[in-house]
Amino acid sequence: MAEAGTLTLAFVSSHPVDAAKVLERLSVADAAALFTNLPARAAAPVLEAMLSPAAARILVALDDQAALGLLSATGVQSAVAMLRHVREPRRTTLIEGLSTTTALASRMLLGYPDDTVGAWADPEAIVVGSDTATGEALARVRGNPGLEANEIYVVDESQRLQGIVGLQVLLRAHETMSLAALMRPPAGVLPVAMPLSGAAAHPAWKQTNIMPVVERGDRFIGVLHAAKLAETLSRGHSGHTDTPDETLSGMLARGYWDTVSGLLRVGLAVLPPAQPVLPGDK
């Protein structure tokens, strides 16, 4: 039985997207039981790969400690996507349990309609003032190894976007040089209220795979990645009505998925029975 649990952990750690597809077919109680018995670092990528409504139902079925552990292990964008489908007052309870930075970013992004650019902007970008020296900016980049930092964003004292500086330019410049002398205009800028369909048609995507997102007055709030935009539009337009055979065709043989599903169910079989979630427990 312990071997089944080890195999389940190994599978979800190595194939989070595949595991997510299988778990979406299980009952909420069974899926929640599995998440409860997995380390957050291994379970979070699986939760992120699930459809947001399905992931939210699992969060609701978990206690606050387990749900917060998973949310904290995901990125802000993924956390917000799930929290959009959690009803109040549980949503507020979960947000209040997050780190101050993540909670503030979540509240901001949740304030935008989910079909607009602002809802899917990634606030985790490296932002510096225009009077920052190159050496200091590089230190910021090295101090945030988890962030994609091909470009850094230069703002003024009011957080208005002034320009961007590519990492390669930064590396070649003298460490005392001001970023104001190195920055250039971005290929394009996306307003927070722009519909996602409009953002997809922006001509700047031919030149870049990431664009800054600004509020009124050019106040920088984050960036939008081309991959995230494509994923969001795909999910919204597809409706996720594809059958398993259609969705998995060309990826893996049906027999593999039967094996995967069986493995996860074996893992569930060794877990203690899931207790129903009562209204008073939420």
TrEMBL record:
One annotated GO molecular function: magnesium ion transmembrane transporter activity
Superkingdom, taxonomy of origin: Bacteria
GO cellular component terms attached to this protein's record: membrane
Transmembrane segments annotated in the record for this chain: none
Gene3D superfamilies named in the record: CBS-domain, MgtE N-terminal domain-like
Ranges of residues in domain Magnesium transporter MgtE intracellular: 14-117
Name listed for the protein in its UniProt record: Magnesium transporter MgtE intracellular domain-containing protein
Upper classification of the organism: Bacteria, Pseudomonadati, Pseudomonadota, Betaproteobacteria, Rhodocyclales
